[in-house]
Design a protein that fits this description.
The chain is an all-alpha fold. 64% of the residues lie in helices and 0% in strands. The termini are far apart.
Length: 86
């Protein structure tokens, strides 16, 4: 059996095309789909809350925001004091 020399080139081209397609899909979601979803009735209250409270929604940690502090305490207590099966 002989191996086709063009096969690595085709594989590289296919991988590059996949990368470009993936980046395009992400950009379409970020620039078209996500802004369109902001006005939907099931997302609008959350968007309004984030804007009203001036929350940085892209932050990794929300330790300095009072609402998230209360939510963290509630989640910890829910796990710690949840009903146990008999």
């Amino acid at each position: 059996m002989t191996q086709n020399i063009d096969q690595p080139q085709a594989s590289l081209a296919r991988r590059i095309a996949g990368l470009v397609a993936g980046i395009a899909i992400i950009l379409i979601f970020m620039l078209v789909i996500a802004p369109y979803m902001d006005d939907k009735p099931f997302i609008k209250p959350l968007v309004d809350f984030i804007e009203y409270r001036d929350i940085d929604a892209s932050a990794l940690y929300y330790t300095e925001i009072e609402e998230f502090s209360h939510a963290s305490v509630f989640m910890d207590n829910s796990r710690r004091f949840s009903p146990k099966p008999l």
